[in-house]
Amino acid sequence: MAQQRFDQLLQAIHNAALKAQELTEEQHIHQLGKYFDEEGKPITQELQVPTLDPDDDPEDMVTLQVPLMSLLPPSAIKIKELKVSFKAALGKIKLNDEDGDGPKAPSIDLNTGGGLFSKSQSTATIDITFESGDPAESFLRINDYLVKSVV
Questions:
Q1: What values do phi and psi take at 94, rounded to 5?
Q2: Measured distance CA(74)–CA(136) in Å, rounded
Q3: Which pTM value belongs to this model?
Q4: For a FRET experiment, which of 1, 84, 102, 133 has its CA 20 to 30 Å from that of 26?
């Protein structure tokens, strides 16, 4: 019969939420890497567009090197909500003196055991809701600069 402290469970849930947020941040960095090469130069797409001179033949085209970043809208995700619900049998409540000098902190043991075939098996449900967010301000500023460089 394994026992866990309630504060350890909350710490594990908190660490899992931090790791999920870290993964979304890594996604942003990875996404930026799709728009720039190893030397930091923007990856471009060559496009043919009509000239802006009204005296030119409508069939005359100008070749533009358009940065991919300005063609594809950036997407950003972030954690909107984290819900955790679980059932566990509560064990002993005891006072722990963590460092020996300070006040004693209460802890609750969670009875997470009962074996594989036990009817009192602990369960947990975790729901994480992600939402689309606005791109980072620096991303938008870089994009504005690239767009101005094309026109």
A1: -140, 160
A2: 9
A3: 0.50
A4: 84
